[in-house]
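Give me structure tokens for this 482-residue protein.
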Amino acid sequence: MKIKGRKWRHSMLRRCLSYFKNTFYLDLRSLAVFRIALGLTVALDFFERASQAGAHYSDTGWFPRAFLQYPHTFTFHALSGSENFQWWLLIGSGVTALMFAIGWRTRLCNFLLWLLVISTQHRNGLILEGFDIYARFLLLWSLFVPMAARFSVDALVRSSPFKDNRLSSFGVFALILQVFVVYFVNFLMKCNPSWFSGTALSQIFSYLDYPTAFGASLLAFPLLLKGLTFVLLFAEGFAPWLLLVPSRTGGPRTLFGVVIFALHLGVLLTLDVGYFTQLSLSAALLFIPSQFWDKQRINAPYIKKTLFLRNRWQEVLCLILVVYVHAPHPHHAIWDQFPNWPLKIREMMAPLKLQQKWVLFAIPDAHLKSNWALFTGVNSEGRRFRLPDHTDITDVESKEAFQPMGLNHRLVKAHHRLISAQHSSLRLNYLEYLCRESFKRKLATPYERIETHAVTFPFDRLPAQTVEHGSTYLCSDGKGVQ
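Here you go.
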């Protein structure tokens, strides 16, 4: 009986190992293309941030270093508050991303880029979005896979130790699991009346600044949007499971790639969500099957076996991080025996930003009912202008006050968050910043005061249902006085 039990356990272990190798594997050539796309996307984001370094990161902007929360904030940007320092640091971060993309000193650049991304996100949390979460986790898990094995400067300088093209490891498992979590958790969050009733996309395209002109035009076709709502919900719920289907031919992964490409192409055409779409498409490149590369006769013939990476300490560390990131550990019963441990662990890990939350447009009706911060400037002639784009408006409740501003996608996030009570002091600082900027423009008739209003939007993009008047700042020589 003992022998039979031992054989059964060995048989189950072999089956589990076989499933792992046939499911959680990546082609090194696909991994290399992912590295290039990831590096380029992160570089573009850093260069865009550099163009707004003074506003978002310097002490002369609306988020000075005095608002940073120590000691859990890890950021190189706190070393200086000058605009020039912030600009050079962001440009240097973008150059590091380009070096990572071409595969020069890849592992070092990967680690530095991960630290720089976390550092930048700690500097100003009010402008963060889904891209920032996804980018830092993709860079984290990339540390545990051989990103330079193919199509890199490192591979040209010294021969790669990987002779086979297919790799299975806990690092690969972490990357695939991360992609699965992004889509499936977002699907679970969308299991609510707005999506089940088919009105979600109509509500999303009714937002003020997210939809593109094409997306807003689709509001004229409610039946089409209702059908697309159900298609999108099905795609996010079904596609991730294709990643967990064991296959050596790559059929399920090819289908996953097609579905995800179509999904994000639609997002790119209809919504301005920053670089999240480009980053998601970059992650989808991970799943280009080996057969594609073999048909192009790129790098190596078809590999019949899968290499299992055997770097013990790297694999153990990766597995620990996977469990920490994805397990709801503070609520597990085992932690009841150690009541002080979860808090201490979270405090230690806070600088690394290992938490994630995926609610991308999951509750659109709640977003519509939430407040939006509308800032207006009034000059000596009594004329009112919307800020920061200086659009002439007749009244804060007029229709033109709520036309799309064309704001940068990060400033859109800030406007949604600045109206909350917990950011009241920062909101006042933003008013001072707007006042200073208005004087820099050397307007013919400078603003006498700048006001803030909490606005609630209706469903059909008509003038606001409610406008609550908030703080007022008097402008004098570019300085704000409450």
